[in-house]
Amino acid sequence: MQANCPPAAPPSNTAVEQQPLDRALQARALHSVPALTNYGNEFHANGIPELMSANTFRTAWTDYQQLMVDKLNEKVVGTSLESDLLRDVVIQTAREPLFASTFNYASMAFNNHFYFQSISPAYHANTSPKADKEKPMSDELAESLTTSFSSLDIFKADFLATAEAMFGPGFVWLVWHNQRGAYNNGSWKILPTYLAGSPLSDAHWRQQPVDMNTQNHESAGGLSGADHARQSQVQNTVGILGPHSADGQAARNRAPGGADITPVLCVNTWEHVWVADWGIQHKRDYLEAWWRRINWNEVQAFTPEAALSLNKKNYPRIG
């Protein structure tokens, strides 16, 4: 006769520890495809006008997002990651070589959702707030972007040129680079990430001597002690990112030497998103059409206050 055992402890905070869970609990806790709040039902029925057909939307969002979520759930079921936010899964697995596939599924699901969530069904012929009565971009955000890029036209040209030039699938991001200083709160940057690469600051840890997507547990277990330590432990705790520095505590989760950035917008350059509708030679046309569908209210919702107050900074008078 078996003795009564106390209930199992909840999963730990480590990405590697697995615990047996009740099936019903798993069904409640596992990741799922989020609802698009930006006219998602309209997109499902009709696609995105002048950007994406209903069939392509079904492939790029409905089917692809479900595939990423299903694959991710296969990896995290019964672990402490199954109920975490996607961004937390990305961050927690970014430096674990054995969790490269988990990172890829989580990061791709995060990136793909970020892309679709910022698309609007409304057509904006011009990003200038004074040229479009619908004001697709607020004066505040427009002035902030102009401070970093000189003009909205230059910003658009640089962003789309970066996306068009990507030789391979990925995403191009508009990010706010936070730089605390006497005369500078930060600046806007354009950041390309390839494949399922992440723009999240805390995920910029992955520096691997081999492609871990082609490795298994046995081959990864053969890493040298130095390689394993470099991939699984923080290597530098001194200097500007040291634990005793002014910024060290705030940056303790950031990769050594990494930038403190906040993503606010991205475009998806994976071919399954645009080739069927636009043709292999018309990537630029796809990008131009996407630009006219950006929901700038959504972009501003992600924008840090420091970026919106960029032009309100009081600089010392000279002379």
Automatic annotation (TrEMBL):
Gene Ontology cellular component list: cytoplasm
InterPro entries: Mn/Fe_SOD_C (IPR019832), Mn/Fe_SOD_N_sf (IPR036324), SOD_C_sf (IPR036314)
One term of GO molecular function: superoxide dismutase activity
Domain Manganese/iron superoxide dismutase C-terminal: 138-181, 260-300
Function: Component of the mitochondrial ribosome (mitoribosome), a dedicated translation machinery responsible for the synthesis of mitochondrial genome-encoded proteins, including at least some of the essential transmembrane subunits of the mitochondrial respiratory chain. The mitoribosomes are attached to the mitochondrial inner membrane and translation products are cotranslationally integrated into the membrane.
Protein name according to UniProt: Manganese/iron superoxide dismutase C-terminal domain-containing protein
Source organism of the structure: Botryosphaeria dothidea
